[in-house]
Every structure is written in C-alpha cells, then in structure tokens.
Write a structure and sequence with these properties.
This protein is of the alpha/beta class and 229 residues long. The radius of gyration is 17 Å and the shape is globular. Helices cover 39% and strands 21% of the residues. The protein has eight helices and eight strands. It has a domain of 155 residues: Rossmann fold (3-Layer(aba) Sandwich). Helix 3 links the parallel strand 1 and strand 2. Strands 2-1-6-7-8 form a five-stranded parallel beta sheet, with helices on both faces.
Amino acid sequence: MAFPRNAAETAPPYADRHDAGRLLAGALQRYRGKPNVVVLGLPRGGIPVAYEVATSLDAPLDVFAVRKLGMPGHPELAFGAIASGGVQVLSDDVLHWYGISDAAVAGVVAHERAELERREREYRRGPMTDLRGHVAILVDDGLATGASMRAAVQAVRALGPARVVVAVPVGSPATCDEFRDIADEIVCARMPEPFSAVGQWYRDFSQTSDDEVRALLHAAAHRAAGGPA
C-alpha cells in the first residue's frame, strides 16, 4: 500500500522523524486497537517513527536491532545486513561486482555484530516481545536499498508471527515494489521519483541518539502499562 506517487512527489519533506511517524500511522489505522499487533522499530532512526506509529495504533513498541554491512571504505554502500537472532543477508551481486574478499566481509560482519549486540544490551532490559501469532509491523525511517529491512523481515519470520508488515514514511519505488514479495504487506507512504536518498525527505534528519532511543522505549513501556508517557 502507498499513497499516490504524484502526491508523494509534490508533497514537502517531513519536518522530522516524529512528523513522518504520525503521517505513516494514518496509513495503518486498520490495525488500531487490535490486541495482536506489535510495532518493531529499527534502531536508531526508525525508533522515533515507530514510537508515533505505536502510540497512534495503541500498540506495544519494541526494538529490533539490524545493522547494515557497508563496503570497506564506502560504508554508505551496503552489501548486506545482519539482524537479531544471527540472521545475515548478503548481496552476492554486489560482492561479485566489487570483488570484496571473504576476509573483508568477515571483518565488516565482526565489527557490525559487536555494535548490534551493544545496542541490544543498551536498549532492552528484558526479553523481546513474543511475536508468535501476532502481526509484526516493522518500521524504519525510509527504504533505500532495503538491505537492513530484508534482514529484519527474515529474522522476524523465524519468531513465528502470523503476519509481517513493513512500513516506512518514504522509500525508493523499486525497493518498495520488491518488498511486495518479501513481506506480507508493504506500506510506503511516499515513493518519490527519482529517488536519491531517504534524508532528502526530511528537513531534520539529524542522527538519533542512544538517549533518545532509550527515552522513547521507556515512554512507550509506561504507556503500555497504563502510566504517563
């Protein structure tokens, strides 16, 4: 599901990730108030978006750690991703095209695995939400190559949800189309053409801090428990 592409192309950028999350939540209202829905935010930038979605849907929020595997010397170019549960997704085409050695791949994986494990310790103080039989809504701040989200979908499916939904405020049209065969449902609120970078669709795309992630997860937990956020 997505909004019309002509509207996506002419709409102004989001003010920030919270603004994007509130708009994205509007496309997910059919899940509002349903007891079997869990919103999973990809840290760090996906957490503010996911917080707004979870708040609007009155659903619990959890964090799902994923790390992009970037090219040595060019970390912005992904050749794969890793996720919670030991999932690793590699793009054989990218590895072959750029001639990345097995040793280089192993070095990047080891570095990113350490950061993924740090984030899991940093953000979560208890076991992950049981997803068996639930609708898992995976949220990030955008889809460019989709490598991180592919790893997330694969890892989440191993946890036994009834349905996996991928939801983002903005994404590459080609990548969003690819996810129709990867997830049970894909919601890209905006699919601008031509697409160059997720950050171009935010007026404020500053890095989300660990402190902000912890604060939002804490607020969501208080809301779920019936206390003040």
